[in-house]
Structure formats: structure tokens, C-alpha cells
Write a structure and sequence with these properties.
two-stranded antiparallel sheet, 2 strands, 72% helix, mainly alpha, Na+/H+ antiporter like fold, homodimer, 2 domains
Chain lengths: 442, 442
């Protein structure tokens, strides 16, 4: 087909038009129009997916988490402009792609929520809880300070977002390194993994609060003052408490009802509806939709949909897998796409990336102080908490959409610096962990 | 949350704005804008999904195929305007929803293709082949005639689409009824099921040809003349032959290569990329994307991705299930949404629906003549071929997007009549099959 005289110009045209893929065609009911939009959507999705998986594969081969490869693949694709290739440039601002990526983030946090459990969370030891708390407070404070020091003219919202991005640990990479080293059952490992669970929920509180502040600022009420901020914090915490309690009840009722359904796909459809409903509630409450999605995942307990599993349906985690395998990488590739490498030509941006990364590493070393047991290696605990990942990226990207005085709170340059921090903290952890264990062994 | 003074106006606003969900917001980088679009997208998807599954559930309870319920749920939702509720009206013309539905149709035909097999297809008996051929030719001819008789002023393209809609049998319902009656192993059953497989491919040829003609008409070249039509038919058949041969080779190579990937989700991502690539090729060749998607499914053989399965990954069918369970119902609900019940107030539309349904039933009775064996009940074979489903709907919806002289080839009224035909043929089959078997038993 490729060699047919009709197909070639069509293909060239299509490639030229991928850029204009913005869903802005009016529904004209015309075959040519609609066909074009659908074909463009398929080409864009296939392209992003292929790039994501190739990047992920490269990362896996280098014993790194796939996320890292997806991000880097996005960075590469997004900076092809440096080599004179501008065809993918418009993808950075494509709204359908942004919406798909955001839905990817929502489903990702739902999945993370499904895999964690409220009761398991309440059962982590005191050491883990203390480690997590220190690991949220210290990076937040240090990040705020670093941002304020480097950008004295920026809004305090900017500093808040930079600090917020540094809070959540992405423990996946640590868990894997510990397993590879055969150290999964050490007390250090148990403390780190427990802290990571607690960390998730604290990150959620931070996100609820910061996104509430952001929404207030973004809807034209201006930067909230002290009193307004207090109200927003109260509302965010109130939403979380309400969502976790009422959500648990709703989940039980909704799935108890859904479990009587016999139509194929009822379970996965119920999950998506529940997740989207909670995300919408969060959004109506002035918080980020992902906060609601995470709550939906946390309150959804296997017991609620047990009748489905008893009938031979697969578990929610397994049903979600093929879906998240398709939409979540879209989020990471888009995050990478939006990193402008040219920004690093400016020494100040490079310095910001360096300082933020340094602060991210140091901030989590404070975690070691939270260990109550005496014979535990505090350095290992501190290093294990270093990697930042998904939640940090979501935070940073949230910041780019909040406008204060017409400018985004997180500028393109700050965003690039924060993505760099995510990449570096993740890259640096495995060798440091190995070194820390080796030190102790001698 | 619902009772909070902030949430209520927000919710009302959101419901009022669902209508405007058209993805046409420019990417403004503003928190409020993007948040709104994402939230609207989630609300619309959750709504359509809930409506689809409730309808599907009702159908299953009444021992009907879920598709029927999804369609009827869409019809109900789309005609709420009769009761003064106009909130969902704009969904009918929402482009993002149309694109999602079309991607649903593409994935549906990919799935159908995956489940059928080229070699199995070549191995159906002569009776099945003859039954299928007659079952394509007779309804096509009768449908063309009925359309021309009822609408003498319409373009011959209209008649072609009406005929085309009547060709493809949707054998799922027959298979289920036969199973329920304990007749799955009779020779009648084997002939019908074999014919249904052959039917798929013949339907594909018809669709390739008709969509090629439609594309030619739709891109402004006007209704093709005899010579042009001949060229298009040759091109369509050529594409199919090429896609099935080259596609098989590509599939083998691509999956052989993909099978070396270790990153999670590599198999399902490869499938989607392959499906979308073939659909894009079909589209570039001037055919409907679904034609390419079906080819992709047919040529994709389990052998190609065997290394994945050997590593403990699930089969492609199982991986596709949760995805199609979410996007395919969007297609059926949207098809239902677009049926305007007010159209049936006009006697001519009602008459058209009746005549088309009658012709659809009679056309497949000709199938009985194709049975070569002597002791086979020809009535059972004919009745078993009656139900029309997915492929017919795709045909009809294709027709609504082709413009000839500025008017759609399949008008809203004709579309409504065709959907009615799909509903009726599916409803009528189970009792008729039961009666035919009962008649023979006495």
C-alpha cells in the first residue's frame, strides 16, 4: 500500500497534520473531517505509545524503572527541535493529549490507591510514621527555602509547589534494589517500605492543600491570604476525611449493588465510574481530581467486589493493568515532551536543577533521625527514601496550570528543573544504596 | 461534600456544561480551563459507561445480548428531549465522544478479527461458504431495491449503504440460543456458525468496497462513475489481499521483535500500535479504518506472541477485554443516542423501518438454498442467519458521515430505520429459532 501513488501523499499529509491534532475540528458530520480526526488520534496514540515502550524497555535493560525511560523518551521526542525536526512540536500543546495524560494520571493514582490499604496504613510502625513525617516536612521546608533563595521575585505559591514536588517518595525503585540485593527482609527495608505507604497519604494531604490553594488562586480570587489559606487547608483535610469515610461506605454499597450485575465488564466499568465520580467530587471541592481518584482506590477494598472474584472474574488490579499500561505512559511521555533542554543553557536553570536535587537528597536524610530502633542503619533508611517519581511529576505539572497574575506558578524553566530532579534522584539511588550496604558489610 | 455550599453550584454548573463538552477549548495552560475539560471528560465517560452497563444488564436479564441493551439505553438517553430534558442533547454532536466511539469500533473489529482465524476460515465447508455468499448477495440486492423503491429521489449511494447494512450476520445471539437449546452440535448449528465466519470476511469486502466509494464521493470527487467505481473496487480488494498477506508477515516480524521486550505492558501496547497502524493504512488507502483493524486482528496469530504467553503473560483476547469493555459500549450508546424517535412519527420512516426489517429477514432465508446436505433443516439455517449487529451499525454510521451534494448519504431518518432493523432482527431470532426446532420435534 505504501508504494501506491495514492497512499504516499496521504501519509505525508498526515504526518504534516499530526501537529494540528487538537480536537478543535467542529463536528461537521463530514466523512473526510471525522475520518481525519480519528486517524490522527490513532497515529498520535500509537506514536506516543511506541516511544514510551521503547524508552521503558531501554530503562529496564539498564536496570532502571520504566518510568525513567518513558520520561527520557519524551524529553528526546520533545527536543527533536534542536535537530531541526519540528513535526512533533504541536503535541506539547495538544489538548486531547493533555486530557488523555491527565486521565492517565487519575488512573495511575487510582491504581496506587487500590494497591495500598487503609488498615495496612494504620498498622505501620511508629518508626515508619516518624520517618515519613520527617521525610515530608524537611524536603518541603528545604524546597521552599531553595526556591525562595533562587527566585526571590517569584510568588510564594511557586515556592510551595517546588517544596510540594519534593515531598512524595517513589519507593518502587528502592524496593526493587533491596530485593536484588537480597535485603528485602531487613528492618531497614521494612521501615522504608512502611514509610513509603504513610508517605503516600501525607503526600495526598499536601497535594489536597496545595491544589486547594492553587484552585483558589486560579479561579481569579487571587493569591489567598492567611485566613483564606486556613479555610482551604481545613476544606482539603475535611474532604479527605469525608472521602475516606463516606467513600468506604459508598464503595461497599456501590459494589455490593454492582456485584449483582451479570453483564460482561460490569466490574471494571464500576471501578472506572467510581474512580471518576470521586475524582469529580474532589474537583468540585476545589481539589485536584487525582486526590479523589487516590481516595477511591484506597477505600475500594477487595471485600467489596468479592462476589465478582468468586464468580471467576479477575481482580481489579489485574483488570486495570492493560488499561493503565496504555494511558499512564502517555502522562510520562507528555511530561518529558514539555521539558525544554534549551532552558538548561541558562546557568540559573541548571543551578536551580542542581540545588533542588541536592535539597531533595538532603531533605530525606533527615528521615534517618526518625528511626527509633538502635541497631538500624539510618543512612540506608535515608537513602532508600530519596527517589521521587509519579506524584512529584503530577505536582510539578499541576503547578504549570495555575496562573497567578497571568503567569504560571511553575514556569517552563522551573518545570524542566523539577523533572531533572525526578530523573536524578531516581538514577542516584541504586548505586548509593549498594554502597551503603557495602560500607556496613566491611 | 454534596451538601457543602461550594460543591452544589459547582455540580449544577458542571451538569449544565456537560453539553458544551466538545474539546474545543484552546489549550490555554490555565488550571481552571484544563481542569474543567478533564472533569467534563470524566463525567461524560462515566455517564455513558453507566448507562451502557445498566442497559446491557437489563438485556442480559431478559436473555438478550448486551449490545441490544446498550443501544436501547442510548436511544432512551438520546430521546430524553421528548420529556423536556435537553441536558444530554449536545453529546450527540460532541466530537471527542465521536472519536472515542470510532476508536471503540476499531478495537471491536480488531477483537473480532483476533477471535477469527484465516486458516479456520479457509476450512469451513462448502455449505457454509454457499450459505454465507447467498446471505450477503440476497440482502444486499433486496436492501438496494427496497431503498430505491421507498426513496426514488435518493442517490444510488444511499441504496448501496442500506443494502450493505443488511449483509453482515451477527451470529452471537444465534450461537447462544443454540447452546441454550442444547443444539450446538447439530449440523444446522455447524453450518450457521461456519457461515458466520465466512460472512465476516465477505462483509469486510463489501465494507471495503462501499467505504472506498464513499471516500471517493466524500473527498469532493463526486459520486464515482462506472469506471471510477471499478477502480475503487479493485483498490479495495487489492488492499485486503495485500493487508492479509503483508500483514501476516509484518505481524510475525513485529511481534517476534516485541517479544524480546521486558517492559511491562509491551504485548498490549504492541497490539494497539499494530491495530492502529493497519487502521491508518486502510484510511490512507481510502477505506474505513475498521477494515484495517479487522485485518490486523485476523493476521495476528497466537504463534506470533507465543513468547509472551510462555513468560506467563495473558493472551491478547484477555488483555483486550477490560479495554473493549470500556470503549466499545461508547460506540453503541452513541449509535442509540443518534436515533431520533420523533422521526417515526412520520409514516414513511416507520414504513421504511418495517420494509427494511422484512427484507433483512427474507434476504437471509435465501441462505437455506445454499445447504447442500439433504437432511438439514433449511429453515433453521435461514433463521439462524437473521440477526444483524455491530457491523451493520458501523455501516449505517459510516453512511451518515458521507456527504453527496452536501447531504449525508444516510440521513438521520434512514439511520433511525436501520438501527430499528438491527434491534428487531436481533429480538426476533430467539423465539423464531425455538419455534423452528419445536416444529421439527412434533
Amino acid at each position: 500500500m505504501i508504494s501506491s501513488p495514492v497512499a504516499w501523499p496521504g501519509l505525508k499529509n498526515l504526518i504534516r497534520q499530526i501537529g494540528t491534532f487538537d480536537g478543535a475540528h467542529a463536528y461537521a458530520g463530514s466523512w473526510a473531517n471525522q475520518l481525519e480526526t480519528v486517524t490522527q488520534a490513532m497515529v498520535v496514540i500509537a506514536l506516543v505509545l511506541a516511544v514510551a515502550k521503547l524508552g521503558g524497555e531501554l530503562a529496564v535493560r539498564l536496570r532502571q524503572p520504566p518510568v525513567l525511560g518513558e520520561l527520557l523518551a519524551g524529553v528526546l521526542l520533545g527536543n527533536l527541535g534542536l535537530f531541526g525536526i519540528t513535526a512533533v512540536e504541536p503535541l506539547k500543546h495538544s489538548e486531547p493529549l493533555a486530557v488523555l495524560a491527565e486521565i492517565g494520571a487519575v488512573l495511575l493514582l487510582f491504581e496506587v490507591g487500590v494497591e495500598s490499604d487503609l488498615f495496612q496504613l494504620l498498622a505501620v510502625g511508629w518508626s515508619s510514621l516518624l520517618v515519613a513525617t520527617l521525610g515530608v516536612v524537611a524536603p518541603m521546608g528545604l524546597g521552599y527555602w531553595a526556591s525562595a533563595w533562587m527566585m526571590p521575585d517569584a510568588s510564594w505559591m511557586t515556592h510551595l509547589f517546588v517544596g510540594g514536588t519534593l515531598t512524595a517518595t517513589s519507593v518502587g525503585i528502592t524496593a526493587r534494589v533491596l530485593k536484588d540485593l537480597g535485603k528485602s527482609t531487613t528492618r531497614e527495608a521494612r521501615i522504608v517500605l512502611g514509610a513509603a505507604v504513610a508517605d503516600d497519604v501525607m503526600g495526598l494531604v499536601v497535594m489536597a492543600v496545595v491544589s486547594g490553594l492553587a484552585a483558589a488562586a486560579g479561579t481569579g480570587h487571587g493569591t489567598p491570604d492567611g485566613e483564606g489559606a486556613g479555610l482551604i487547608v481545613a476544606k482539603a483535610v475535611g474532604f479527605l476525611a469525608f472521602a475516606l469515610l463516606a467513600g468506604r461506605f459508598w464503595s461497599q454499597r456501590a459494589f455490593g449493588w454492582a456485584a449483582r450485575m451479570q453483564v460482561p465488564g460490569a466490574l471494571i466499568a464500576s471501578c472506572i465510574c467510581f474512580c471518576f465520580a470521586m475524582a469529580t467530587l474532589a474537583s468540585l471541592a476545589g481539589l485536584a481530581p487525582i486526590v479523589g481518584a487516590f481516595c477511591a482506590g484506597v477505600v475500594l477494598d477487595e471485600v467489596h467486589y468479592k462476589p465478582f472474584v468468586d464468580r471467576g472474574e479477575r481482580k481489579v488490579e489485574e483488570l486495570l493493568q492493560p488499561i493503565t499500561a496504555l494511558v499512564v505512559p502517555v502522562f510520562f511521555v507528555l511530561m518529558g515532551l514539555r521539558v525544554d533542554l534549551r532552558g538548561f543553557a541558562e546557568p540559573k536553570v541548571l543551578a536551580l536543577a542542581g540545588l533542588v536535587t541536592l535539597v531533595a537528597v538532603i531533605g530525606k536524610q533527615v528521615c534517618g533521625l526518625g528511626v527509633l530502633e538502635k541497631d538500624v542503619d539510618r543512612l540506608v533508611v535515608g537513602i532508600g527514601m530519596i527517589p521521587r517519581g509519579e506524584v512529584g511529576l503530577i505536582f510539578a505539572s499541576l503547578g504549570t496550570t495555575v496562573l497567578v497574575g497571568g503567569l504560571p506558578v511553575v514556569s517552563g524553566q522551573v518545570f524542566s528543573a523539577l523533572v531533572m530532579m525526578v530523573l536524578l534522584t531516581t538514577l542516584v539511588t541504586p548505586p548509593m544504596l549498594k554502597a551503603a550496604f557495602a560500607r556496613r558489610a566491611t
